[in-house]
Amino acid sequence: MAGKKSSSFCSFCGKPKEEATMLISGIEANICDACVEQASKIVDVELGSSSKTRKSSSDLHINLLKPTEIKKHLDEYVIGQDQAKKVLSVAIYNHYKRIMNSNEKDDTEIEKSNVLLVGETGTGKTLLVRTLAKILKVPFCIADATVLTEAGYVGEDVESVISRLYQASDYDADATQRGIVYIDEIDKIARKGDNPSISRDVSGEGVQQGLLKLLEGTVANIAPEGGRKHPDQKFVKIDTRNILFICGGAFNGIDRIIAKRLNNSAIGFLTQGKDRTHDNELIEQIAPSDLRSFGLIPEIIGRMPMITYLQPLDRDALKNILLKPKNALLKQYIRLMDIEGIKLVFDKKAIDLIVSKAVEFKLGARGLRTICEKLMLDVMYEAPSKNEKEITITSEMVVSKLADLDDTKAA
Q1: Higher model confidence: residue 10 or residue 269?
Q2: Please, what is the Cα angle at 258 between 256 and 264, to 5 degrees?
Q3: To bridge 306 with a disulfide, which of 115, 147, 287, 378 should be the other Cys (CB 3.0-4.6 Å)?
């Protein structure tokens, strides 16, 4: 009969045969192509990852190098910060050595050593950790402590950090359990006073309390796609005992806390103590008690036993960042222009002026990128349409292009 629709329809979504690209028939049910595709994705998440987790730790490929070799690789990408590199190299080596030998029969239980990095913005904290994960070929994710809240409040709860690592590992639970998490701006969740808050602290002490179990080691029930957007999905259990947590923060003002402690302890030598603790050298004296005075709770300090610092970048370090690493900023621009068949040259005076501006703005390596992007914008915009074979960046161009940055800073 003309115009009569078929009685066949998808048993899952109810879509009639006429509206489906394909309808697959079973004994007592049908399924359309769209539902087949959706079911395939569910199987990949629910069963595909679990089949991977049947691998033993000995089957996992971790590119574990000796501490000196790890530092050597870090030197190729990060300028200076030798102390931080040494601490991270030892922490990484011992952590994965502990995991890879966990099946040996020995009564000695080696505890995990999470790391805390203290240093101003732009000193290379994130780059160090990202480079480590790349060297080791392990899953890695970055979380911002400022967006974390206690469970029950608007925002992301602490277990969302593990969800990100799970996604970064391509939904491989076993790989997730041996990954690295970098929690940035940990100093922003310091409590605002020495006394514990009677009321719940959404963005401070409460979040620190929530992070404790993850840092130490617990089985977290995480939602692969995000709990709030997909409340009906199944949870995946992730053991955090072998996840290495590296936390970082600028801890602005902690130098005054350190200075006060050092001067108070230098009885009879107060003036000498002040001379000895130059502003840039104070951070080298950082101790757990200073972190507690800043606002981190003792429990979370205890779960990050390895504390190291990153020094502010001086003029020479900033210049080296422009020129020497494998991923040096100027090398990146030169390569981009080379792809266009254009030779890009930076005048020495121009380079010195870029560094001077970065020192002036006090934004570290991030300041260098801001300056270079501003400087190179018009060049990268116009160059592909021109027939020039060589472009030279001069000091006059730097002064002209960065004039408005000076005005912004003055304002």
Answers
A1: 10
A2: 100
A3: 115
| Contact (CB, 8 A) for 70 and 97 | no
Q: What is the DSSP string of 257-323?
A: HHHHHHHHHSTT-HHHHHHH--HHHHGGG--HHHHHHHT--HHHHHT--EEEEEPPP-HHHHHHHHH
| C-alpha to C-alpha distance for 146 and 187, rounded to whole angstroms | 9
Let me know how long the chain is. Answer: 411
Half-sphere exposure of 39 (CA within 13 A, CB side): 8
Specify whether the CB–CB gap between 114 and 214 falls below 8 A: no
What region does 196 belong to: left with phi over 0, alpha with psi -120 to 50, or beta?
beta
Compute the distance between CA of residue 173 and CA of residue 177 in angstroms, rounded to an integer: 6
Report the predicted TM-score, pTM, of the whole model to 2 decimal places: 0.74
Spatial distance between the Cα atoms of 47 and 277, rounded to a whole number of angstroms: 58
Tell me the CA distances in angstroms from 270 to 219, 259, 262, one per residue in order.
Answer: 50, 11, 9
Tokens of 390: 């060589």
Q: Using CA atoms, how far apart are residues 158 and 92, in angstroms rounded to an integer?
A: 23
Least confident of 112-126, 128-142, 168-182, 210-224: 210-224
What's the CA gap between 160 and 181, in Å, rounded?
12
In angstroms, the Cα distances linking 164 to 98, 111, 211 are: 24, 24, 15
Cα distance between residue 375 and residue 302, in whole Å: 45
- CB contact at 8 A, 336 and 346: no
